Amino acid sequence: MFVRSESNFADGLEGMICLRGVFSGCLKGARNEPCEGCHNPELWDFSYCELKEEAEAFSEFERQLELWKKSGCRFDAISLVGGEPLDQSEKTMRLFFEKTDLFFPGLPVILYTGYTAGEIISLRKKAALFWERATYIKCGPFIQRLSSKADADAERYRYDGRKIPALASVNQEFFKIR
Asked: What CA–CA distance (Å, rounded) separates 19 from 81?
């Protein structure tokens, strides 16, 4: 379920301003098999915003996008976080991209997922929309006991001359898709 949007400086490559889409719903969390030390346990539930319907959240999102556009705001990328973006319905994700493309067309997409690269490949059919849209993927579950070396390890990875976002734990990977 789409929850909210915000502008963000931490999700993209070094120096990027991202339009962040936050989603609730995580199948691993709902099965009580979350990432070790999950950052967002409140976003496991697919009905996180019980007081607000998804349609209302999208309506607010469109108003926010219009305000950002009118104010001259610029974004370098879209980042998708949550919960788990890959566990969202295709309808939700298509509506999210429809709204963003209306005001900020052609932005690269950075997907943050707790799924491993192998799991993403096995989900290819389910995640077809992300394969169409994603430019970068930060994948792998957060594992708290592996978090201490992650920032130092990430220093050596760069795409397009820019440092990648910090890895939360050393098992995570960051890929450029296209």
From this structure: 11
Burial class (CB in 10 A: 0-12, 13-18, 19+), 140: buried
d(CA 32, CA 93): 24
Strand order from edge to edge, sheet including 109-112: 2-8, 18-23, 77-82, 109-112, 134-139, 173-176
Alpha carbon distance 98, 107 (integer Å): 12
DSSP assignment string, 90-129:
HHHHHHHHHHHHHHSTT--EEEE-SS-HHHHHHTTTTTHH
Q: 104 Cβ partners below 8 Å, 6+ apart?
A: 19, 65, 68, 69, 75, 78
Give dist(CA 9, CA 29) in Å, integer.
27
Q: Look up residue 46 and give its DSSP letter.
A: T
% residues pLDDT > 90 (the chain) = 35
Amino acid at 109: V
Question: Which tens digit of pLDDT belongs to each residue from 41-88?
Answer: 888 888 766 546 778 888 999 999 999 999 999 999 999 998 999 999
Tokens of 178: 């296209």
163: Cβ contacts below 8 Å, ≥ 6 apart: 13, 14, 154, 155, 157
The pTM assigned to this predicted structure is 0.87
